[in-house]
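Hi R.,

As promised, here are both runs. First protein below:
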Amino acid sequence: MSELYAPFLSEIEPRGRILDAGCGSGRDSMAFMKKGYQVVSIDASEEMVTATSKLTGQPALLMLFDQISFKAEFDGIWASASLLHIPRSNLNVVLKRLTNALKPSGTCYVSFKHGDSERIEDGRYFNDLNETLFQRVLGEEARLELLQLWLTNDVRRAHQRKQRWLNALVRRIASNA
């Protein structure tokens, strides 16, 4: 994951505050904490909150994306493979909440399975995005600007040849002027 961390962390001040939005097992939260960042971890799954709390030694928060109410608190938001579980019709609402949580000039990393479908797989909802669909979603949040958009192979060895990922870095515009 370090090749994905590097562009994100290059935008965040040392010891900055990061929201790990959809923290899963806590792997990324722990990696950021080891690098000296202050991390707030949230997830919608009680199991994942428990796992993250155990791994990081600090409490993770049980929270849905539509419950996020932070206001300009984070230098960065890490939403790795988490927003892909949000229906496309609700993505702009969640993006607005994440933007509100970012400090002006704060940076957000997001990733989606590359594609254009909305589907249920193994009982879980997936919203795949390609470059055009992501640009359309991003266009609905005027306070965000695109910094970087790129494709990667899945980091899990068993999936490398099967799955491509759309990665994006976006920044909250410093002013609303």
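And here is the second one, sequence first, then its structure tokens:
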Amino acid sequence: MLKLYDVTIPGYGTSALYGKSAGNAKANAWRCDSFGHMNFMDFLKLGVSAKLRKEPPKPDGYDYIRRAYGVDVRIGQKVSLRNESASWNGKIGEVMYPGPSTASVHVMMDGYDRPIIVHPSNIIPEG
């Protein structure tokens, strides 16, 4: 299961990133476009740190969706999908942190290890 980490890169700031472990969260930070010019060991020499985040960031990144689509989506909320590909329709997942702002919902489908991106009108809150 993925956990949310605050990954700090000296000179670049702190970002909330998902990973299976602190090391995996650091690797996910390295994979972003800004660091394609260096190998992973050089990236770690920058002094990169990852700390497990105990609660979702505020704001949670879904304010635009609440305003534009009228969908009250929350991190950690269980949802099922409709009008997605046939393989996802009716499946259940959990809403994940998308980053500072987004126009789509990031959902970790049960049994998978990477979130998928879903249109806000295609989620149905469970329970």
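A quick note on the second one: Strands lie at 3-9, 13-19, 49-52, 78-81, 92-95, 105-109, 116-118, 123-125. Let me know what you think.

Best,
J.
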